[in-house]
C-alpha cells in the first residue's frame, strides 16, 4: 500500500529533509562542542550549495505533492494516467534538477565576489545574506540581489499555485457527505499549508528584510525557523500522522520483537540442553 505516488514523494521529501538538516546542524553542534566557529572557505561554499540545493528541491517536492493531492481528490478518474510511475519520476527529477540549478547559480554568484569586509559570518551556518554583507563589489552584489529576487518570485508563484490547489481541494471535500473525509483532508492539508507559510515568511524575512531592522539575535531566530523547523516538522506531519505508515511501522516493530523473542527462546532451550548433557 505504500507503493503509491504520495509515498514516493514522501520518500523524496524525507531524503531532502535529512540532507537539509545534515548540511547545517552537525557543523554547528561540532562548533559548540569544540568551542570554535571556524569553517574553511571551501566548506562554507559547499554548505551554501547543498543547503540551497536541498531546500529548493524540497519546496518543489511540496508543490508537486499539492498537485498530487489535487488530482487524487478532484480528478480521481484520471489519477492513474496523470500520476503514473513515469510522470512521478519525471516530476521528482525536475524538482531535484531545479534545486541543483538554483544552488549552482546562487553559489557561483555569491562566491565569485571579493570579500573585503572581514571573514566573520554572524550566523550558525554560511548564509547568503550574511556573506553578502562582507562583499565590496557593487556589481556582483546587484547581480546576486537580482538572482535572489527572481528566486523569491518563483517561490511566491509556487505558493500561489499551492494555495489555489488547496482551495480546489477544500471545495471538492466540502461537497462530500462524509465528515470523516473532511477531517482526514483538513488534518493533512492545513499543517502542510502552515509549514509552507512558515518556511516562506521566515525565508523572506531573512533575505528581504531592510538592514535597519537587522540584528544578530533576530537573524539567528529567523534563520533557525526557516532552515531547521520545517524539515523537522515534515516527518511529524506526513509520517506520524499517517495511519498507513504507522501501521507499517508497527508491523515492523512487532515482527522484530517476535524474532528477538524467538531467538531468546532458542538460546534458552539450547542452554538447558547443554546443562542436561
From TrEMBL:
Residue span(s) of domain G-protein coupled receptors family 1 profile: 1-238
Subcellular location as annotated: Cell membrane
Membrane topology: Multi-pass membrane protein
Keyword annotations of the record: Cell membrane, G-protein coupled receptor, Membrane, Olfaction, Receptor, Sensory transduction, Transducer, Transmembrane, Transmembrane helix
Residues passing through the membrane, by range: 7-25, 45-67, 147-167
Superkingdom, natural source: Eukaryota
Main location class: membrane
InterPro entries xref list: GPCR_Rhodpsn (IPR000276), GPCR_Rhodpsn_7TM (IPR017452), Olfact_rcpt (IPR000725), Olfactory_GPCR (IPR050516)
Gene Ontology CC, one term: plasma membrane
Single Gene Ontology MF annotation: G protein-coupled receptor activity
UniProt record similarity statement: Belongs to the G-protein coupled receptor 1 family.
Described purpose of this protein according to its UniProt entry: Odorant receptor.
PANTHER family recorded: OLFACTORY RECEPTOR
Protein name as it appears in the record: Olfactory receptor
